[in-house]
Amino acid sequence: MSRSLRIEHLSVSYAEKQILQDLSLSISRGEMLALLGPSGCGKSTLLNTLCGFVDADQGRIWLDDEDVTAAGAQYRQMVQVFQSYALWPHLNVFQNIAYGLKVRGWSSNAIQKRVSEMLALVNLTQDMAKMAVTSLSGGQRQRVALARALAVEPSVLLLDEPLSNLDAKVRLSVRHEIKQLQRQLGFTSVIVTHDREEALVMADRIAVMNQGKIEQVSTPEQLYHHPCSAFVADFMGADNHLELNAETLIKVLQEHSATVLPSGRYAVYFRAGSAQLLTVNQVPPSVGMVLIGEVNQCVFQGESYRHGISTQQGHCYVDHSFALPEGQCVQLFVPSTALHLFASSSVH
Ligand SMILES: Nc1ncnc2c1ncn2[C@@H]1O[C@H](COP(=O)(O)OP(=O)(O)OP(=O)(O)O)[C@@H](O)[C@H]1O
């Protein structure tokens, strides 16, 4: 049965190397939380510590109001789904899904019924039960792995990059299927991913990790529009980054948005898709940052054309609905709502 999960001041190290540092996080019952962060920041270590494969040096792990920090993996009833599926190659689909139920001593009739329900749940036909898992496609194997995990009604489902081995098209459909299942069944889950779009689509909240710590945990919308640090802005895909001193920044910001800025350097982040290209004399539609520049590159990317713009303050990319010729002078405008500004001391 799904339970809530609370992590308090968790620290984990391998030998002398500290991996997780004083990490705290709460996940409500029925919530899906994505752990997003660069390679090596400790995402898998956190999952392994939660399910009891790795010991914590310090801190507490709670399932509802029960402290399970010292409890064995079997007692916690968290189940992991791996990138590599981790199916038993010598067992068929039915036997794989039934595995955990058998271990828990279910009767063969109950197992039969449960496996049949699980096959339907993950969109596999009943005749697939007898197939060897080695004869299945990647998407089908991951569905079997998911069915095997959900069959035992885990307290928390831990998904470690479950879609990474699937091709792009299958990945898109399976991510929606998992989200739909999670809404339908209301299971608590933590999903590890490198892919920010996947995190945005699937998660109720996203925790961005950096070097063993949580940088920000918020809803997808909040994280996307209001990153709390340069690291998060960069990681959430703000394509453009300029380093400006306060004096230059005040000059390029229009007067309404130019509040008093303490001196020093600032990191300015914005997305190519939220900036606009205006003709040199055009009045900007709202308050924001205006840079004067020249088009030095234009590439077609489907929905729009991405333009490389060289400005005195640095090189930027801006998406525009039609192609502008190289050499054209333009105003690059970014509405203040789409600008993310950080004092450079917060830049990693
Ligand atoms: N069993 C282990 N023994 C020693 N060091 C380990 C072990 N497992 C992981 N590490 C180290 O711990 C750090 C965090 O690894 P972890 O796999 O948790 O990161 P991650 O964020 O999941 O990375 P990735 O996205 O590449 O899977 C890395 O420096 C890794 O080399």
Account of the 3D structure:
Keywords: ATP-binding, Nucleotide-binding, Transport. It holds the Pfam family ABC_tran. This is ABC transporter ATP-binding protein. Helices cover 27% and strands 33% of the residues. With 348 residues, the chain is an alpha+beta fold. It has 2 domains: 5-230, P-loop containing nucleotide triphosphate hydrolases (Rossmann fold, 3-Layer(aba) Sandwich), CATH 3.40.50; 238-346, Nucleic acid-binding proteins (OB fold (Dihydrolipoamide Acetyltransferase, E2P)), CATH 2.40.50.140. The strands form 4 sheets. It has a 6-stranded mixed sheet, sandwiched between helices. Strands 13-17-14-15-16 form a 5-stranded antiparallel sheet, with no helix packed on it. A hairpin with a 2-residue loop joins β15 (305-311) and β16 (314-320). α3 packs parallel to α5 and α4 (108-121) packs across α5 (138-151). The relative contact order is 0.12. The site of adenosine-5'-triphosphate has 11 residues, from α1. Residues 14, 19, 37, 39-45, 194 line the site of adenosine-5'-triphosphate.
